[in-house]
Structure formats: structure tokens, C-alpha cells
């Protein structure tokens, strides 16, 4: 299978780990849904945020989401694994280092603007993503999309090739 996998909040427990860093940058606390909206719309502010995150290398110490590594290692033996992240390219080196340290194997690593991830995985049979907007676009191009359950994506989803999953154990079973 050609499998696409998002990194933040699917493999890396980014939100949990960086929420205090984010709130600190913003000067106040926001709900998970508000954080996603801020990231989506306040691009200029987010460039400042990413520059600070890059300088302080906060992306390099994020813990893994439970169960992700063993499944990806197993899949890597028989499937084509593309990691597709919307992290900007400035995080390329830090991301590769992090993946290596956690022994996450992959065939390709792509940086893609939001809603363009589908362009990176040809003949995509499965994609795993936590961003609902991205998942809706991916569903038009991939056989199956697993929506990794997170507080910001709990809205009902229509396309029946989008399947909500809440753990990597469940992903392994349903893939
Ligand atoms: Mg994500």
C-alpha cells in the first residue's frame, strides 16, 4: 500500500507537549479548537511563533504518540510510507533528527501546505491525519482516510471513506 502519515498529533504528541509554549507565546490560554483556528488564519503571527519554536528547538523534544512507532516500523517492511507534514521547511532538519532519534522509518518525508498533502502521495490507499479540513480533501484522493481523534476534529464527518480512529492499536486493526 501507499500510505501517507501526518506527523503532528498523529505520530508526535505535539499539542500536549507544546500547548504551554504556545499559550506563553500568545500571552493567554486558548482552547484546542481556538489554537487550530489561530494556526489556520493568523499566518503572520504564526511565522513569528514558528521562528521562536525553531530557535528554541521545541520540536526536537516532543514525545511520541503511544503505539505509533511499532506500527510504522512494521508497515515499513511491506508498504510505501510517506510522512507528510504541514510544518514549514525550516523545520526540515529538526524533524529528520527527531524521526531518527525515535527510530521512525519512512521512504519519503514531504513538507506540504495545508490542503495540498494529497499531491504528495500518488495512488494513496491510506492516509492518517488529525486535521479535519485536510482529511476532507484527502478523502477525494485516497481510498481511505483515518481521522486521528483529537479535541479539535470532533465534528461529524460525512464521506464514508473517512474513519475516525482513536489509537494506533485501532489503526493497525482497521488498516
Ligand atoms: Mg497533524
Automatic annotation (TrEMBL):
<dbReference type="Pfam" id="PF06941">
    <property type="entry name" value="NT5C"/>
</dbReference>
<comment type="similarity">
    <text>Belongs to the 5'(3')-deoxyribonucleotidase family.</text>
</comment>
<feature type="active site" description="Nucleophile">
    <location>
        <position position="6"/>
    </location>
</feature>
<dbReference type="InterPro" id="IPR023214">
    <property type="entry name" value="HAD_sf"/>
</dbReference>
<feature type="active site" description="Proton donor">
    <location>
        <position position="8"/>
    </location>
</feature>
<protein>
    <recommendedName>
        <fullName>Nucleotidase</fullName>
        <ecNumber>3.1.3.-</ecNumber>
    </recommendedName>
</protein>
<dbReference type="InterPro" id="IPR010708">
    <property type="entry name" value="5'(3')-deoxyribonucleotidase"/>
</dbReference>
<dbReference type="GO" id="GO:0008253">
    <property type="term" value="F:5'-nucleotidase activity"/>
</dbReference>
<dbReference type="InterPro" id="IPR036412">
    <property type="entry name" value="HAD-like_sf"/>
</dbReference>
<dbReference type="InterPro" id="IPR052419">
    <property type="entry name" value="5_3-deoxyribonucleotidase-like"/>
</dbReference>
<dbReference type="GO" id="GO:0009264">
    <property type="term" value="P:deoxyribonucleotide catabolic process"/>
</dbReference>
<dbReference type="InterPro" id="IPR009206">
    <property type="entry name" value="Nucleotidase_putative"/>
</dbReference>
<keyword id="KW-0378">Hydrolase</keyword>
Amino acid at each position: 500500500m501507499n500510505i501517507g502519515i501526518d506527523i503532528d498529533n498523529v505520530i508526535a504528541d505535539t499539542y500536549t507537549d507544546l500547548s504551554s509554549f504556545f499559550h506563553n507565546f500568545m500571552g493567554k490560554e486558548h482552547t484546542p479548537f481556538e489554537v487550530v483556528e489561530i494556526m489556520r488564519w493568523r499566518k503572520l503571527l504564526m511565522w513569528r511563533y514558528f521562528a521562536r519554536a525553531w530557535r528554541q528547538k521545541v520540536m526536537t523534544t516532543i514525545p511520541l504518540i503511544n503505539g505509533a512507532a511499532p506500527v510504522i516500523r512494521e508497515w515499513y517492511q511491506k508498504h510505501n510510507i510517506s510522512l507528510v507534514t504541514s510544518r514549514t521547511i525550516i523545520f526540515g532538519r529538526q524533524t529528520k533528527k527527531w524521526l531518527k532519534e525515535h527510530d521512525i522509518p519512512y521512504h519519503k518525508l514531504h513538507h506540504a501546505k495545508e490542503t495540498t498533502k494529497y499531491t504528495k502521495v500518488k495512488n494513496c490507499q491510506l492516509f492518517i491525519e488529525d486535521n479535519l479540513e485536510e482529511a476532507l480533501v484527502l478523502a477525494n484522493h485516497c481510498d481511505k482516510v483515518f481521522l486521528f481523534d483529537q479535541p479539535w476534529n470532533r465534528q461529524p464527518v460525512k464521506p464514508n471513506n473517512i474513519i475516525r480512529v482513536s489509537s494506533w492499536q485501532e489503526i493497525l486493526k482497521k488498516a
